[in-house]
Amino acid sequence: SETGTALLTVTGAGIVSIGGSTDNTNVSATVNSGTLFLAESSGHKALTGTVTIGTTGTALVRYTGGSNELAGASVILGQFGTLDLNGYSESQIGAITFTGGTITTGAGVLTLGNAASTITTNASSSTALITGNLDLGGTDRTFTIARGSATPDLNISAVLSGNHNITKAGSGIL
What we know:
There is one protein chain. The protein is mainly beta and about 170 residues long. Helix content is about 0%, strand content about 40%. The strands form three sheets. Strands 1-3-5-7-9-12-15-18 form an eight-stranded parallel sheet, with no helix packed on it. A seven-stranded parallel sheet has the order 2-4-6-8-10-13-16, with no helix packed on it. A three-stranded parallel sheet has the order 11-14-17, with no helix packed on it. The N and C termini lie far apart (about 40 Å). The relative contact order is 0.13. The model has no long low-confidence stretch (mean pLDDT about 95).
């Protein structure tokens, strides 16, 4: 369990795993390349700061221990980054910013569970993608989509739930 301010940087083709049975607080990660497994037991936070994935190389962050590994964390996905919930669910994620990149849930559900749960895309030559299951979290949502050279800029091929409205802001294509 980490309780101070910490930054984990993953670079290279290997696998790094964060696991345990207590919450980590004030822990951020930058995964430049390689794989980071989030293996905290279900309901415990692996990372709570900013998680940057695949801005400089092919990178994967995968849930392997349980749900809500990124409770309160902000996620930045580069064009080479993938966040894979691997069949688990996340209901407490913070802001999500794409410059390309992919979020996939498998059988799990990504729930935009609080006011900080926003989706924004920056201009990119790669389409940002959300697959699996996306729940709007009980409220109307505005997705801010910047126009890049990719068409579309954000592709949501996930099953949507939450019975609320999505408003698209920005000049990008959703």
